[in-house]
């Protein structure tokens, strides 16, 4: 699942000549009960923004780890940044900063992302300064797998929905 997403993102980053690094941490449990469609959409929106709003030759770093029963995604870019007053409006539908208007977009990605994060009872935060990059952090509560979850995941006819394998 991650490998697929990151391949997609690598291609996009290469197109834009942005250096894209990702770190999937060993702390991830072997299986997680997680809505992978929702989580995939969240990752896609945040990463595509980071790549879009970062100039060529700069870096985007994406980190995924598991801590305090939360799946955490941190995406750090060296892009155009977002001023403090704009940060509060980012998640409203159709809101786009003036700096962003020379890039294509509808202003819906983050509103949708926030909606999905809320549905998954998670949190999304942003740290940024105008002109000096942004860091988005998303935390989603995910219970640690039980022995039964792991056994179910290995059973071929399991109807348990499996989202992520840490080391595919
Ligand atoms: P789309 O609907 O295609 O995603 P969009 O990227 O403009 O369009 P959002 O993803 O909702 O819309 O982001 C809203 C606004 O937040 C952007 O227009 C931009 O002003 C700002 N923004 C989001 N991510 C970043 C980022 N990584 N760096 C700088 N500005 C950002
Ligand atoms: Mg977007």
TrEMBL record:
Keywords: ATP-binding, Cell membrane, Kinase, Membrane, Nucleotide-binding, Phosphoprotein, Transferase, Two-component regulatory system. Residues 1-144 form the Histidine kinase domain. The keyword Isomerase does not apply. One of its GO terms (cellular component) is plasma membrane. It is found in: Cell membrane. It comes from the Bacteria. GO terms for molecular function: ATP binding; phosphorelay sensor kinase activity. This is histidine kinase. It comes from Alteromonas pelagimontana.
């Amino acid at each position: 699942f991650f490998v697929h997403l990151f391949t997609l993102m690598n291609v996009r980053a290469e197109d834009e000549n942005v250096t894209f690094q990702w770190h999937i941490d060993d702390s991830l449990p072997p299986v997680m009960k997680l809505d992978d469609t929702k989580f995939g959409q969240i990752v896609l929106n945040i990463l595509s923004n980071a790549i879009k709003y970062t100039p060529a030759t700069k870096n985007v770093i994406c980190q995924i780890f598991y801590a305090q029963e939360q799946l955490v995604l941190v995406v750090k870019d060296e892009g155009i940044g977002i001023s403090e007053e704009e940060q509060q409006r980012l998640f409203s539908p159709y809101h786009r900063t003036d700096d962003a208007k020379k890039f294509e977009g509808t202003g819906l990605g983050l509103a949708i992302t926030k909606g999905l994060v809320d549905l998954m009872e998670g949190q999304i935060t942003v740290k940024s300064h105008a002109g000096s990059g942004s860091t988005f952090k998303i935390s989603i509560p995910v219970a640690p797998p039980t022995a039964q979850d792991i056994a179910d995941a290995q059973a071929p006819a399991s109807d348990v929905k499996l989202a992520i394998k840490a080391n595919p």
